């Protein structure tokens, strides 16, 4: 991306073995940074790291459980010893239990708390621990992944006629991620730490045609996005081009939320 300089930066991407995270890792490495693939899936994570390295990029894989303080602290220690610094954290992991995605009337209190706790709680924990490390380091950058459903109310009509729904946990989590971002940006004021988030629209993943058509009707051109459509915004937030962008939520949704 023209004008974006993140060469040799050490960028931790949680959930980097997944659909969006893997594109983030490829984009970060292509821009010259070290893509640290932090994930619970060792097989997929190492495979992605090998792919990036085979294409002349810089990548590492490290096991990470975002709900474990010990795991997060171990990652920070390993990377600091290896590289002497950590430049940025991208909170992209998407933890959820096997019952996630049920309709409102079928969601139990226990499942709601479990899913909110692991996802939002994990983002809190990683941001807390990396933020404290960044304070000692003298600088740092955190990018959180939120969603348009953290910005606008669900459009349940686009799910009609399908087996899909918009999980209530997701709305609660992603709206909270946006405000957590603002909280952290303000809390770390004067510490040379930036905290921002990206709210993407829907991402293509073999959804039924009837859903895609209804979704596209609210969009201004493309409709559902590809993961690659988000990488430019991430690179911007990781670079000095955005050095005075702090506490912000950038919506990338093809105008869907208008």
UniProtKB/TrEMBL annotation:
Protein origin, superkingdom: Bacteria
Which keywords does the record carry?
Oxidoreductase
What GO molecular function terms would the record report?
oxidoreductase activity, acting on the CH-OH group of donors, NAD or NADP as acceptor
One Pfam family matching this protein? adh_short_C2
Q: Which InterPro entries match?
A: NAD(P)-bd_dom_sf (IPR036291), SDR_fam (IPR002347)
Asked if the Swiss-Prot or TrEMBL record annotates the protein with the keyword Oxidoreductase, the reply is yes
Q: Which NCBIfam families match?
A: PRK09186.1
Give the record's family classification: Belongs to the short-chain dehydrogenases/reductases (SDR) family.
Q: What is this protein called?
A: Oxidoreductase
Which gene produces this protein?
Answer: ptmA
